[in-house]
Request: fold
Amino acid sequence: MTGVADLDAPTPARFAPGLPIRYACAGCGYEATDDRPVPLRCPRARLDDDIDHVLTRRLDPARLSWPAGDEPDPFVRYRGLFHAYHLALAAGWTDARYVALVERIEAAIAGVDGLGFRATPFERHAALSERLGFAHDGGVWVKDETANVSGSHKARHLMGTLIELEVAESVFGIGPGSRRLAIASCGNAALAAAVVARAAGRDLDVFVPTDAHPAVVARLAVLGANVTTCVREPGTTGDPTVRRLREAIDAGAVAFTCQGNENGFAIEGGQTLGWEISTELDARGVRLDHLFVQVGGGALASACIAGLDDARVLGGSTVAPRIHPVQATAVSPLARAHDRLAHRLDSDVPADDDITWAARHRSAFMWPWETEPHSIATGILDDETYDWLAVVRGTLTSGGTPVVVDEATLLEANELALATTGIDVDPTGSAGLAGLLALRRHGRLDSTETVAVIFTGVRRGAAPDAPPPPSGGPR
Ligand SMILES: [Zn+2]
Reply:
């Protein structure tokens, strides 16, 4: 094992004359070329080859600059940080044509869901900070995603994917919308996918567990999605909805998902969150000490980590918080993987060869959770953290630590969030705050420190006339 020396080594310049943002597999080394659409999933991915195939961005900082605009729409403001933008310009598009494409999609989303994308509020909440005993020069900042498109952060991931699809189809002359979109989800991701797909006029298959909320299923139907309920088969581990999704993808569907291993572009869209957080804090000169991020499949944390990285590399941002992924006691495969990787390391920080080794020995770190999880934080009960390695790496290199919280703390955090912030967040959405509560309680956060959480999803009202969800299903 090696130490930290390699971390500061420059990435070899292997880009010119290609695009300044390119995609490569973090597991096997596959590199996408610029002469055809970049696949959403590594084409070399095989079941059971024990390689962690995730397509990830490779930036050429010399040919990228931090966006200077102040447009309210993050997909316009940060367009210069999207692969699709550079693909479009290389194909002869003007900047105005690209912006017009984004704005056309935004208008359609507003027609379906009532509003398009805007930078979401991010501010220090005084009452919450006071209740947790923070001093005036510290405190808790909340990034409020509950009023974002479809009521959560999930649509960010899928908007990035849709823009990439639209541009690639145009540039490479592929029939627009010729392939079905597909997603496995029990809640916010499915709703987000349905809104974005409807706005784009594309067909969407949604695979849901048997205990999906009736109100969510009803809304999916209104949005025109084709919903399939997936039963967990006795004696099998792994999420049955994910298994059905993989079958659909193998049959030709586009992985319109927020799982990084199935859809690398989902991470890119989600990075708008990290870009917005950096922009806001840098503008106000605020030092952020800790960021708590709830983790299910891992795309949110992965995207935040990558977005903050971009801001430091390209924009000179000073925002470099310790990253704390937060999971429920009911299912915490990321914390397990973190502990196993940390145990292998001589130092607290992984070197590149440690990461490479881990990416090629996935089963030593990540496998489906053995027991059926139940929690009030229903949105983070993924059997596996699909994007685990990027999250563990970001956690270790930032000096953060995973936090696993029990049901009482998840409930306490949600009640505290509702009582002090006025934000109508659900228990999954406030799970990061539960991690903050746990560390504060254990004396790991100083009262003068500045910490941030992301309230990711709005509370969904129960459907009064709907039957209760069937018992005995997954999650
Ligand atoms: Zn690969």
In short: The longest strand covers residues 322-328. Residues 1-16, 463-475 have pLDDT under 50 and may be disordered.
